[in-house]
Amino acid sequence: MHSKTHDKTPVFHISRRTGLPWQKALGIRFAGIVLALVVCGFITMAATGLNPISVYGTMIEGNFGTSRRIWMLLQNMSILLCISLALAPAFRMSFWNLGGDGQALMGALGAASCMILVGDRVPGGVLILLMVLASIACGMLWALIPAFFKANFGTNETLFTLMMNYVATQLVAYFIIRWEVPKGSGKIGIINQSSKAGWFPMIGGNKYLLNVLIVAVVTILVYVYMRYSKQGYELSVVGESEPTARYVGIKINHVVIRTMLLSGALCGVAGLLLVGGTDHTLTTTIIGGRGFTGVMVAWLARFNPIVMVATTFLLVFLQGGSSEITTIFGLNQSFGDIITGIILFFILGCDFFLNYKITRSKTGKEAA
Amino acid sequence: MLGFLIRFIPRAVGQGIPLMYGSVGETLTEKSGHLNLGTAGIMYVGGICGVIGAFLYETGRKTLNPFLGIAIPLVCCLVGSLLMGLLYCFLTVSLRANQNVTGLAMTTFGIGFGNFFGGSLIKLSHADLPSIALSKTSALFAAKLPFAGSLGWVGKIFFSYSFLAYAAILIALGVSYVLNHTRTGLNLRAVGESPATADAAGINVTRYKYTATCIGAMISGLGGLYYVFDYASGVWSNNAFGDRGWLAIALVIFTIWQPVHSIWASIAFGGLYILHMFIPAGTNLAIKEIYQMAPFLATILMLILTSINNKRENQPPASLGLSYFREDR
User: Fold this and answer.
1) Which spans in A229-367 are helix H?
2) Which of A24, A241, B254, B313 is deepest in the core (most CB within 10 A)?
3) Which of B29, B23, B105 is nearest to B319 (CA)?
4) What is the pTM of this model?
5) A148 within domain boundaries
6) Chain A nearest CA to B253, separation (Å)
7) Coil, helix or strand at residue A7
8) Among chain B residues, CA nearest to A177
9) For residue A271, what pLDDT band results from cuts at 50, 70 and 90?
10) Which helix (H) or strand (E) holds B132?
11) How many domains does chain A have?
């Protein structure tokens, strides 16, 4: 800038955008993701010496290379999506449920406890029914506790739900030692390996298909619930403005508790699918931080269940792909977290360009 | 009883100091109206950057220059946490991204960053154990006051700590003084309470938010450095730092945004963290897992009690968690 008289005038002017056409919004998001992928490609290149194109080649190979890998991708997607779907209604209500990990872990504990305690005493169908009920009840309980205090006393739910994760982890650690097989190993191992009691039936010999189908149905149900039901409408009103909700006669306490019960129940289902459907064991790390990743999946999709399928795919693809790269190049497994973090930074940053536009100031002489 | 206290208190303090750094840093950040859930990640980054600096300096040297041995990890830690703070500020202050989600993304990134470089250094050092031991640097960091040994139990309870522990207390006092007794602190609190009003009064909101958050991030990062080089005796193993970052954030609410209270509260929580090691459980290993819930249950209890005992002067900064855009006024 040559003009010294206009020292105080900023070169750029930021203003709010309104009514951005959806094609343009999609374009901005797409550009953000592409930019992020390019940056991650270069970082991976620095770490491995691969050129960026073969980085993504390896990532695609790692996710789609064999039919087993594709099924693993679908399985990981369905569990992450299930937890994200659970969290979305709570976030829409402006309730920061960071306790997805704990709620899902409690669901897993509920399912595993049925398999271990009554597995050989009741018929298979009854056992699976018990597992469903137990895991949903455990997940709901873990969500109800913070919701109750939030609704009645306004207790900070962000940290409350977060702390419940660690309480759940310790509780599961306690039961793992109580039920460990063999004694002193500190592990439960595969539950009911010989009798297969409580294992979900395979559809056409495939152990992942049932989970995928269940989560597909849940996705549609949550979409309909949030979009077309009265309860879904009520929770968005509470999320947008509590005074408005109070004014139109919505009982905020009820909505908070009801929505969190739903959130906990769906997290419990995710735990159930892991224990009953695929893993058939219980560990303290079985959820693998999906409660946190789910927050980001739901946020990036703006709580739209259908878009969440795409954001889930993006994150699971990156995790699977970077895991392949770390295995081939003997890198540390945490490489995937770095990549995920960078992608998220870009997507968060590109939100700015959806809500604001930057124009060059007209007041500066040269800038016009 | 005294024997128990002499064993218990120094360990509780050792656990409490990282929490103190984390909560004081987070308090400063929150006073500017920004809830930084990335503190857990920043503390990892602070720790690993210190480790990287120390590793590069210590490897291949027989003796360390005491000044460089402390300065290099310290500067690396501060720079690493500063960069994380800048990243957070850029996303939430300049680009007005959602603070909670940005914080979680920073935590994912920071823990991944720590474990990735930690894991890579472990590989480089060809150790048998999955950890890096930087004992020489740690000896410098953990140097205790020379007269501590000659003072009996008083020395053990009050004077047996390293300089970073006393620095934590001084920083807590200093931040408290700045917040409550200076013009800068008043302006910062104004920014956190109502940025629009502060802006109208001629306070540069963006500058205050950036400065408070970045200094807060550097203070938090020191918690990671203290943990590695003093508490863990210079041994970095992946995920060892654990969930302390979240406890530090929770402590901010407990201390009702007053860093002075963080001094005793952090040590009390440090005590809860190690309580399970001091409760005799005999052969019942399972019950120990239940005792380890103590700090988390105490945090939950404290969240509930502070929300029930809802006083006007104990509220968070009014604009906490909200982005500020001048033209929205």
Assistant:
1) 230-240, 242-247, 252-272, 290-300, 305-329, 335-355
2) B254
3) B29
4) 0.90
5) yes
6) 9
7) coil
8) B286
9) very high
10) strand B132-133
11) 1
Interchain CB distance below 8 Å, A296 and B104: yes
Average pLDDT over residues B118-132: 78
Half-sphere exposure of A20 (CA within 13 A, CB side): 18
Nearest to A167 among B109, B110, B296 (CB): B296
Q: What angle do CA A263, A264, A268 make, to 5 degrees?
A: 120
Residue matched to tokens 């419940």: A164
Please identify among residues 227-266 of chain B the ones whose CB lies closer than 8 Å to any CB of chain A: 238, 243, 246, 249-250, 253
Reported as a single tens digit per residue, the pLDDT across A279-335 is 899 999 999 889 999 998 998 888 999 999 999 999 999 888 888 888 888 778 888
Q: Angle, to 10 degrees, between the axis of helix A230-240 and the axis of helix A252-272?
A: 110
Residue with tokens 């501590």: B148
A357 phi and psi angles, rounded to 5 deg? -125, 150
pLDDT given at position A363: 55
Distance between CA atoms of A198 and A207, rounded to whole angstroms? 13
Residue A367 is predicted with a pLDDT of 41
Pairs from A198-204 (Cβ < 8 Å, separation ≥ 24): A198/A111, A198/A114, A198/A115, A198/A119, A198/A124, A198/A127, A198/A128, A198/A131, A198/A276, A199/A276, A199/A280, A200/A128, A200/A276, A200/A277
Q: Which amino acid is at B97?
A: A
Mean pLDDT for B110-139 is 83
Class of domain B16-143+155-328: mainly alpha
Say if the Cβ atoms of A96 and B100 lie within 8 Å.
yes
In a domain, A78, yes or no: yes
Q: Which domain holds residue A141?
A: 68-305
Percent of chain A at pLDDT > 90 equals: 50
Q: What region, left, alpha or beta, does residue A196 occupy, with left being phi > 0 and alpha being psi -120 to 50 degrees? A: left
B110 reaches A (C-beta below 8 A):
yes
Residues of chain A contacting B98 with CB distance shorter than 8 Å? 299, 348, 351
Residue A40 forms part of a structural domain: no
Q: Which residues of B50-69 are buried (b: 16+ CB within 10 A; e: fewer)?
A: bbbbbbebbeeeeebeeeeb
Per-chain mean pLDDT for chain A: 88
Task: State the smallest CA–CA distance between residue A154 and chain B in angstroms.
Answer: 6
pLDDT 10s digits, A71-80? 999 999 999 9
pLDDT in tens, B272-316: 988 888 887 676 778 888 888 998 999 899 889 988 887 777 788
Q: Which residues of B touch A241 (CB under 8 A)?
A: none
pLDDT digits (tens, 9 = 90+) for A109-152: 999 999 999 888 888 889 999 999 999 999 999 999 999 999 99
The contacts of residue B1 (CB under 8 Å, 6+ apart) are: none
The rounded distance, in Å, linking the Cα atoms of A218 and A269 is 10
Q: Which residues of A touch B90 (CB under 8 A)?
A: 349
